[in-house]
Amino acid sequence: MKSDAMQPGFKRRRGPGRGSTTTPAERTAIQALAISGMSAAAIARHQGRSRKTITRVLTGEEFDNAREMARSALALNAENFAQDWVTASRVAARNGRHDAARDALLGIKAIEPPTARAQQGGFTVQIGVLLPGLGPQASTTAEVIDADSVTE
């Protein structure tokens, strides 16, 4: 059996390559993915473009403007977003899903990312206490407690 490439009239489909320019829609998609936190390498794979092309799109003035518009929109709606997040995380917690709380605690570094041992069911919690008069620069020590050794 012949492969498709051997059939008469077959034209090999090729992605964008040297000399092709990114379309406005493609640039917008690349910018949106970058603003959402996706790496340039991941965007390149997703879009079928080179990292160099993605980097070129993300270093232009157009992207700086898009990023600033996104930041402004977030700032204007931050309180609503926060309330929506709190509501959604409470609903998720009632259903046994604690991903939102875990992600928030990781984000503020109240807990550490899971290690190989912690992925088996334990985690590390850092609890800080701010004492009056010491200010936030006061250092504290933390004791790591093995979740397996804690009894109720």
Could you characterize the architecture of this molecule?
It is built from 5 helices and no strands. The protein is an all-alpha fold and 152 residues long. It has a domain of 44 residues. α2 packs across α3. It is extended. The mean pLDDT is 74.
Radius of gyration: 24 Å
Low-confidence stretches: none
Total of DSSP H or I helical runs spanning 4+ residues: 5
Question: What is the approximate shape?
Answer: extended
Provide the helix percentage: 40-55%
Entry keywords:
single chain, 152 residues, mainly alpha
Structure summary:
The chain is mainly alpha-helical and 152 residues long. The protein is 47% helix and 0% strand.
List the helices and strands and how they pair.
Blueprint: H1 24-35, H2 40-47, H3 51-58, H4 61-94, H5 99-107
Helix pairs in contact: 2-3
